[in-house]
Amino acid sequence: MACNDKEDGRKLSRQTQYERRKQAMRLHKRGMAIMDIAAALRTGHVTVHSAIKVATADGLKAR
Fold first, then answer.
1. What is the pTM of this model?
2. Of 4, 1, 2, 45, nearest to 24 (Cα)?
3. Residue 47 to residue 21: CA distance in whole angstroms
4. Mean pLDDT of 22-39
5. How far apart are CA 38 and CA 50, in angstroms?
6. How far apart are CA 9 and CA 37, in angstroms?
7. Whose C-alpha in 3, 23, 26, 61 is 20 to 30 A from the C-alpha of 52?
């Protein structure tokens, strides 16, 4: 996936960011790989990993 295929998450509303984190967690719980989640959500794998890490440690509303 080329870098320009990703959306800049900083430009998304807080609600949209929250929904993407929830979707990342749903896909992760279903067993989808982080790289595949990142591609599906058009974001970076580091972003997905961070969202999963925070949600697992502190609950989804932590950020």
1. 0.75
2. 45
3. 9
4. 94
5. 11
6. 15
7. 3
